Amino acid sequence: MQLVLRFQTRPSVRRLMLAGKAPGLQHPNSNSILRGLIITLAYDDVNRTVTKRLLEKIGCEVTAVSSGFECLSALSNVEMPYRVVILDLQMPEMDGFEVAMKIRKFYGYHWPLIIALTASTEDHVRERCLQIGVNGMIQKPVLLHVMDSELRRALQSASE
Question: Is 0.85 surpassed by the pTM of this model?
Answer without folding.
Answer: no
